[in-house]
UniProtKB/TrEMBL annotation:
Protein name: Dolichol-phosphate mannosyltransferase
Subcellular location, principal: membrane
UniProt record similarity statement: Belongs to the glycosyltransferase 2 family. GtrB subfamily.
Superkingdom, taxonomy of origin: Bacteria
EC identifiers of the protein: 2.4.1.83
Boundaries of every Glycosyltransferase 2-like domain copy: 5-166
Localization, UniProt: Cell membrane
Keywords from the named record: Cell membrane, Glycosyltransferase, Membrane, Transferase, Transmembrane, Transmembrane helix
Sample GO molecular function, one term: dolichyl-phosphate beta-D-mannosyltransferase activity
Protein's UniProt keywords contain Glycosyltransferase: yes
Gene3D superfamilies, A to Z: Spore Coat Polysaccharide Biosynthesis Protein SpsA, Chain A
Length: 320
């Protein structure tokens, strides 16, 4: 058992990993207890794993998990928490956008008795306008969609107490939105504010496709509102249709103007079909996730672990 665990998900981060290691070492050296740096290699295709091995051989505090393929950032965090042995666990990105120095501040708060200390971004540096705008919109949309209090502009950079971790480990849902789960768990939570730095090197590992999937996971995992909205829309459109039918019937029975109107007919057909397909899509998002859940596949598969588990040796095993 160590006092502090730092969980770092890494996916193709060969360009930053040494610097991250250095900065984390410097910070964790200033803490009052033992610590481990637990890297989770999320199926990197570059030299990330070799570098981790190099560090792990030299330094006892470095441990790692190696996935059999890329399972995604949220799953990597989950695996890190599964294997973290610390009394307090810090989750941090590898790219140094989250300044490691803040960990000391988080630890202070933890000692004051908080169980979750999350870091709220008051500014984001060096990110594209598109990223900032979509992130801004996403956090507000999420807030509007869910009844739960998920803090705005807050990523996964946070410290959690072991008892919160123990609860999270018991939640094996597949469409994972870890920050939502942490809010759901409750306990005593507080925020510290920070300015998000630029990526140290390399490019974002969150292309648009992953971002969309991530936001849909967040919203569908914590809200039925899209489904409610679909039924409300359906209801409203039925009312409109009913009125429209009465008008059409009136025109047919009492006037001679029924031959014209081809354009409006085509528009109506296209519009209603569009709406129906969108609603089916919304339902599909939920059904797909239900399907994923019932299959009960493991969240991730480990190829290898170093320094984790019961014995401090290289171990190979499958989880769950
Ligand atoms: N990451 C991961 N698996 C993925 C994508 C990202 O483990 O499939 C890691 C990545 O290495 C980094 C963190 O998750 O440590 C956040 O990713 P990134 O900095 O690219 O996201 P952004 O800050 O651009 O949102
Ligand atoms: Mg980043």
């Amino acid at each position: 058992m160590v006092k502090y665990s730092v969980v770092i998900p890494v996916y193709n981060e060969a360009l930053v990993i040494r610097e991250t290691y250095k900065r984390l070492k410097r910070v964790m050296g200033q803490t009052d207890g033992s610590y481990e740096l637990l890297f989770v290699n999320d199926g990197s295709e570059d030299e990330t794993l070799d570098m981790l091995k190099e560090l792990a051989v030299r330094d006892d505090t470095v441990k790692y998990l190696d996935f059999s393929r890329n399972f995604g950032h949220q799953i990597a965090i989950t695996a890190g928490m599964d294997y973290a042995s610390g009394e307090a666990i810090v989750i941090i990105d590898a790219d140094l956008q989250d300044p490691p120095e803040l960990i000391l501040e988080m630890i202070e708060k933890w000692k004051e008795g908080y169980d979750v200390v999350y870091a709220k971004r008051i500014k984001r540096k060096g990110e594209t306008f598109f990223k900032k705008a979509t992130a801004y919109a996403f956090y507000r949309l999420l807030r509007a969609a869910t009844e739960m209090d998920i803090p705005l502009d807050t990523g996964d950079f946070r410290l959690i107490d072991r008892k919160v971790r123990d609860q999270l480990v018991g939640m094996r849902e597949r469409s994972r939105f870890v920050r939502g789960l942490v809010s759901w768990v409750g306990f005593k939570q507080t925020a510290i504010e920070y300015e998000r730095d630029e990526r140290f090197a390399g490019e974002t590992k969150y292309p648009l496709k992953k971002m969309i999937r991530f936001s849909l996971d967040g919203i569908t995992s914590f809200s039925y509102k899209p489904l409610k909205l679909a039924s409300l829309l359906g209801f409203l459109l039925s009312v409109v249709s009913a009125i429209w039918m009465i008008v059409v019937l009136y025109l047919k029975l009492f006037t001679h103007s029924t031959v014209t109107g081809w354009s409006s007919l085509v528009m109506a057909v296209l519009f209603f079909n569009g709406v129906v397909l969108i609603m089916l899509g919304v339902i599909g998002e939920y059904i797909g996730r239900i399907y994923d859940e019932v299959k009960q596949r493991p969240l991730y598969i480990l190829k290898e672990g170093w320094g984790v588990g019961h014995e401090k040796e290289k171990v190979s095993y499958y989880v769950e």
